[in-house]
Amino acid sequence: MRPRRSNSGAEWSRRAGIRTRSRPTPCGSSWPSWRSVEQEKAQNQELQTEQEKLLAQREDVSSQLQEVNRANSRLLEQLTEQGQEKDKLQQELEETWKTADKRKAMLDELAIDVAQEKLRHKEELQAQIQSMEGTKGWFERRLKEAEETAEKSALEHQEQLEQSAQIELCKAKLKLSASEERHLLAVMKLREEHHMDSLGVLGIMAGEMEKEKASHGDEMRRVESHNLALKEQVEANALREQLAQLEKSVEQEKAQNQELQTEQEKLLAQREDVSSQLQEVNRANSRLLEQLTEQGQEKDKLQQELEETWKTADKRKAMLDELAIDVAQEKLRHKEELQAQIQSMEGTKGWFERRLKEAEETAEKSALEHQEQFWVGCKGFFYLSGRECFGCSTVLVRAVMVLLPLGCLTQQS
User: Fold this and answer.
1) Domain boundaries, position 32
2) Where is the composition biased (Basic and acidic residues) (predicted)?
3) Do residues 94 and 212 both lie within one domain?
């Protein structure tokens, strides 16, 4: 609220001048009265008191301004501190986002690696299973072939034995030599195939000043009545002498009043300036408080975001740990499955090897028995025929010369 200016000095001087002009002097000329002089003195005193009050108010306002400046400096310091804290929080938030992105990338890479590892394990298992199935089929085929050859050899052996008993010795020998050669060729093929696998105050002061002016007006009226009684008793010469002095003093007082009024106007202008400055300071303080509240809210938001990012980072870390545990368990399970499959395949391999070995042994035994029976038959034939089959002796000798090294080779193998 803008203070109302009081022109009390000018009004009192105007009223005093009118009264002095309206009142004629005993000599017939206008002259100032004692009442106007006392009014001027009272006005000067009032102006001095008002000036002192204004000076005191000015000092108070200056002290308030100093306090406001201090408060502004403190608020600025707080703002700078909060700005620094905000920057720190932003940096921390950026760092946490970076760490979260890194953890997310690591998690994605780990998931990709896990998928690749699973695929590789699956392919390896499929390849091993296929290879094992291939070896199993090969062993089964070889075993089947060995059994078939053994059965064929046994059948041929029996047939040859029956034919040797019924048919002539030469045809039996030739058939036995041919079956022996086929048997030896089959054995040699088996051996060759076997070897080839392996993330407000002025209103109150104006009211007080108006009250004081009213009281001073009452006093001035009393003084005027007293002065009128005194002036009728005073002589004109003394009045004229006093008039000159009073005019001088009035002029001085007017000059002083003008100076005081100018000073008062200056003080009022300063007061208005100070009040405007205070208003601006209050606005600045309100803006600073708004900024502080906004920064506090932003700080809270940043803290919440930071907490949320930490929570998400912890969740991602827990997920990463769980995924690592699952991966380790999956690897261990794959390893155990591989070991079990390898053991089972090794067991089947051993079984097929044993079966193949047994088949080879049975084939060798059957071949040896066949040779023994052949030699026994040959001896009996030579013993029985004697000289009658001398023409066929050359053929038999040649057959024996061919079959002997084959029998030795079978025995050595």
Assistant:
1) 8-99+200-303
2) 50-59
3) yes
Contact 77, 251 (CB under 8 A): no
Q: Which residues of 138-163 are buried (b: 16+ CB within 10 A; e: fewer)?
A: ebeebbebbeebbeebeebbeebbee
Would you say residue 239 lies in a domain?
yes
What does each C-alpha distance from 286 to 280, 290, 352, 355 come to in angstroms?
Answer: 10, 6, 96, 100
**CA distance between the termini of the chain:** 130
- For 1, which DSSP code? -
Token pair of 82 as six digits: 């909060």
User: What are the pLDDT digits (tens) for 223-273?
Assistant: 677 666 665 665 656 666 766 777 787 788 778 778 878 887 887 887 788
Question: pLDDT tens digits, residue range 288-326?
Answer: 888 888 888 888 888 888 888 888 888 888 888 888 898
Tokens representing 295 are: 């920064």
Q: Are residues 182 and 245 in the same domain?
A: no
For residues 269, 41, 224, 6, the Cα torsion angle rounded to the nearest 10 degrees is 0
Contact 29, 240 (CB under 8 A): no
Number of domains the chain contains: 2
Do 194 and 204 fall within a single domain?
Answer: no
Residue 315, helix vs strand vs coil? helix
Same domain, 95 and 204: yes
- Considering the domain architecture, whether residues 86 and 144 belong to the same structural domain is answered as no
Are residues 218 and 85 part of one domain?
yes
Residue 112 one-letter amino acid: I
Q: What gap in Å lies between CA 172 and CA 170, rounded to an integer?
A: 5
In a domain, 310, yes or no: no
In terms of domains, do 93 and 204 share one?
yes
Q: Does residue 250 contact residue 41 with C-beta atoms inside 8 Å?
A: no
Whether the model clears a pTM of 0.70, i.e. scores above it, the answer is: no
Would you say residue 315 lies in a domain?
no
Q: In 3D, which of 157, 152, 151 has the Cα closest to residue 176?
A: 157
- Indicate if 91 and 166 belong to the same structural domain: no
Distance (Å, whole) CA 227 – CA 248: 20
Distance CA 66, CA 62 (A): 6
